[in-house]
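I am sending you the entry underneath: sequence plus C-alpha cells. Let me know what the C-alpha cell row says about the fold:
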Amino acid sequence: MTVNDWAKGGIIIPFILVVLIWSSTWIVIRDQIGSVPASWSVCYRFALAGVAMAAFARWRGVSLAIGRSGLLYAALLGVAQFVLNFNFVYRAEHYLTSGLVAVVYAMLLIPNSILSFLIFRQPVSRTFIGGSVVAVTGIVLMLLHEYHAALSEAGGVNPDMVLLGAGFAFAGLISASAANVMQGMEIARRLPMVAVLAWAMLIGAGVDALYAWAKIGPPTFDMRPGYILGVGWLGLAGSVVTFPLYFTLIQRMGAGRAAYTSVLIPVIAMLISTLAEGYRWSALAILGALLAIAGMAIALRSKAA
C-alpha cells in the first residue's frame, strides 16, 4: 500500500489522529492520578464517553435498542474493557511512567492471538511467535531499567512498587485482550458497534461507580482546570473520536495494517514521557525499547500477511 493509496482511501488523517490522540492519553491519565481515587476518575471518563457515544449513535441514525442478549454482551464487554482494564491501567501508572505502561500495552496483539487460538483456533505462525519473544524480551529489559533506577534513587519509588505496577499493567493487558477477543464473537457481528460501545461504556461507568463507592466512599472531584480538561480529553477525544476512526481504519486497510498504530503509539508516548515526566534513558532501556518495537513490528507483519 503506497502513500497515494493511503491518500485516496482517506487513511492518512484517521491514522495520524488515532496515533497522536492515543499517544497523548497515557500522560493525561498520569495527571488524573492523585487527588481523585483512580476508580472515580475511570467512572467520570466513561460516563462522559458513554453519553457522548450514545449521542453520536443517534446522530448517525443508529438505534440503541440492542435487545437483552445485546445488553448482556455489552455488559460483559464493559466490565472487561471499561472496568477491569482501565482500573488496572490507572493503578499501573501510579507506580510506572506513562510511556512504559504504553509500551506494555503495545503487546496487546500477543494475548489477543493466544486467546484467539485457544477459543477460535486461529493459527499462529512461527514468525509471530519469534517476534513476540523479541518484544517481550524488550519489555522485560525496560522493566529491569525501571527496577534498577528505583534501587539507585534514595527516597524514590520502592523497587517492589515497580513490580506491583508491572503486575497491574499486565493484568490490564489481559483484561483488554479479553475484551478484544469478545469482538470476534458471532453476536458482535450482528450488533451495531457504536451502540454496543455506548452501552458498554455506560454500564462500565455504573460498575466503576459501585466499586468506587463500596471500596473508597462517596465521589470526590478535582476542580483543577487540568483535571476537568483531562476527563474531557480522555472521554471525548480518547474514546468517542478514536474508536470510530480506528474501526474506519480496519475497514479501509485491514486489521493487520491498522494494528501498526500500536507500534507508533508507544514511541510517541515514550517521547512525551521523557519530556513531561523526566524519564531517564539508559543503555538497557534503549536496547529494551528497540527490541520491543522491532519484535512488535515482526509479529504484526506476520499477522498482516
In short: Residues 225-258 form the longest helix (34 residues).
